[in-house]
Structure formats: C-alpha cells, structure tokens
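Reposting from the mailing list since nobody answered there.

I have sequence plus structure tokens for a pair of proteins and want to know whether others read the tokens the same way I do. The first protein:
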Amino acid sequence: MRTTDPKGRSARSRALRHGADRGARGHARTPVGATRAEKSEARRQAIVAAALDEFCTRGFAATRLDDVARRAKVAKGTIYLHFRDKQALFQEIVGTMLVPLLGVLEAPPPDVPLRQVLERFVDTFVREIYSTERRNVLRLVMTEGPRFPQLAEFYYRNVVERAIAAMRALLTRAKARGELKDDTLIRFPQLIVAPGMMAIIWSGLFDRFAPLDVAAMMRAHVAALLEGAAP
C-alpha cells in the first residue's frame, strides 16, 4: 500500500494538496515531454482529486472506485497501481491534506508569545482548511467515523494525537515562561480547537442561513481563553 506518511512534506504532498483544492477535472496536466514518473504522479493527483470529490458527494460507503476512475479519466486498474483499496485512498487524503495545520503546532518559531502562535494557527486553519475543500475531509471524518471506526482510528493516530501532543508541548513551554497561570489548557488542549470543529459543523448545516466569520470567531475565542488563563 502506497500511503503518505503524514509527517512528510514532500513535493508530491504539496502537489497532491494543490490538485485536490482544484477538484478533479479530468487528467492532471503534465508538461510536454514529461517523464514517465511525472506522468504517473499526474495520474495519481487526478485520482486523489477525483476521490475527494466522490467522497464528499457520496460519502465513504457509497463511493466506488469505478466512479473515482471515471471522474479521474483513468482505468480502474490504474488506481490499484497507487492504492491498495478505497480505505488506503481515503487515508492518503487525510494524511496529506491536514499537514499544514500540524506544521504550525509542531515547529513554532522559538520564543514567540503563545498568543501569536495560536493566532497563526487560526489563520492557517481558515486559509488552508476551512476555505478549501479540506474542510470536507474533516466533515467526512466526523460523519463517517462512527460507521467506519478504522477510519476514525487512522485520523486519530495520524492527526489528532499528533496535534494534541504538539499543543500540549506548546502550552507547557508557555506556562514555563509565565504566560499561563495554571495547567488547565495543558490538560484540555481540545478547548483551543473546539471552535474550528464547530465551524465545520456549522458550515454544513447553517452557513446558507447565517454565514460565520470563522477567523474573527476563532481569534475572539483565543483571546477569551488566554485572558482567563493569564497569571
């Protein structure tokens, strides 16, 4: 099975994410005179983009690889050259598309105040996740996770667990610098990301009635949390 390590930040991962944001529009474009490896990667990108569209439209259970192949304009057998099965394809999408958010938490600049790091986290979430088709990946995990626990476990092990560990490390350093009065946020880092999850749910149910300014809401939430946690 060829799935991408979520810790990787390869050119292939960047290309995959850009391709998925565009959506599947048939073959990924390849330059004239492209090598065999470049053509293979272009087909792979088209498959992932098509799969994202199919998963978002039909859900995990109803999506068929035949439909993914048709949307990507490749033979079904081509999919199996890159992915073992439908689950591996879904895991590829999850593992690569949420990397930008983890990068903010796992590699913050040294000695930057906690509030600035969290505001950058908010900006990255809104720009790289909420404002793109990546938010549909999160919504898919929420809706399909209860029926397909192996997908929920993959998401937890490769995204959530890493994010919580990075957030705790960030908050622990902030407390050591005197930015936090106690360990409440260290024990419950979920409080920081809660409005982002709520925004994903809201966008699917109520956005057409009452659109949210997600960036402003999440910044207000960070400000309120840090004000309450200040020494």
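The second protein, same order (residues first, tokens after):
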Amino acid sequence: MKRRHALLTALSTAALMVPLRAPLSALLAGLAVPAGVSLAAGLPPLVDAAEAGDLQALRRLLDAGAAVDQRDGRGRTALLAATHANRVDAARLLIERWADVNAKDAIDDSPYLYAAAEGRLEILRLTLAAGADLKSTNRYGGTGLIPAAHHGHVEVVRELLKTATPIDHVNRLGWTALLEAVILGDGGAAHTEIVRALVAAGADVNRADGQGVTPLAHARQRGQRAIAEILRRAGGR
C-alpha cells in the first residue's frame, strides 16, 4: 500500500508540474478535472486554443458548444487572447462565431482597444467591421486612437480616422491623440506623419493640456521641428 500511495503521489505532483500531454494524459485520465479548465496551459480550452492559433481546436470546441466569450483568470476572452498573440485567423474565426469585440478584461482592454494600441492592423479592421465601440475607453480613459498615436502606429491611425472615432477625445492625463503624439512621440517620421494625418482630419491644434500647454508649444520644447511646422501652418499657437 505504501508503494502504491507513493506512486500516486508522484503522478499527482507530475501533473502539476508538467503540461498535460500523452502518455501522462492517459495515466491521469481518471482524475476529475473541472469543466472548462485546460490542465495543459492553465487556461480555459477555447482561450488556450485562440492564443495558440489552433484553428482546428477552435472549430472543434465551438462546434461542441463552447461559449465563444468564455474568459480566463485575467478576464480575457478567447478573442482578446488571439489579439494579444496577433493570431489573425483565429480572431477572424471567433468574430465569425459572434465573439464580442468590445468585451473588456480585468484591466479594461478589449480586442478592439488592444488591437488599436498595439498596432494589430488586420485584427483592428476585423473588429471595426464587427461593430467596435469607437467611444469605448481603456484604463487611462483613452480611445483606441490615443495610444495608437502615442505608439506611432501610422496605419492604425489612418484606419481609425476613416471612422467616427472622436478625434479630440481627452484622456485622464488631459491629452488628446494629437497631444499624445507630440508629448510621448519621438518626433520621428512615424509621429510626424501621425500629426499630419490628425491635423488633416480636423484635430484641434490648439487644444491645450491640463496645464494650458498647446501641441505647438510642446513640439517646440522638444525640438520637433517638422511637427512644429505642421502645427504652425495649421494655425497652432
């Protein structure tokens, strides 16, 4: 009995330390596993498959009735996990199966907001076509446009400017997308192009920050000559 108990203890310990894969899975087949939990990655199966970009597993799980918006311990849906990993085909499949592009996780990221902020252009386009909430905001109170401008994602900014996204929305720092492109940008080619695009789309070039400092004043303080010239020509003060 002692030897049998020791063997069972060793197998249980291995199950906690080693991803569930054959032949270990066969040895542990009799163990009770809570519904919706993947021992392989510690994630709900659908989230696990989405993050891995495993289309075959996604289809199998969805066809078997898995909830398309099931969440992991971080509040991420399968679609948000696919967006994190930039799994475009997985995201497309989930959206085709009516995944919510606006479902937020524990830190207020949604597939739409994360795709915009991190430059996931193809997934962003999928979320826009599926009804992304353009007025939704992240944990900093910013729309998708603001972090896209901050991070220098030129094509994402251009894509969002084709929509009704609020161009002069102010986040909790008191910054618009234009201010963020100047204050947090590096003044290089990408941020210069973003400023040009925002100005051309009608951004308020004189919308100051919480201290009353305008985009032009910020650009001059940072030695961003090309950006300062764009703003000056647009009536910046």
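Reply #1 (J.P.):
I read it the same way you do. Residues 2-17 form the longest helix (16 residues).
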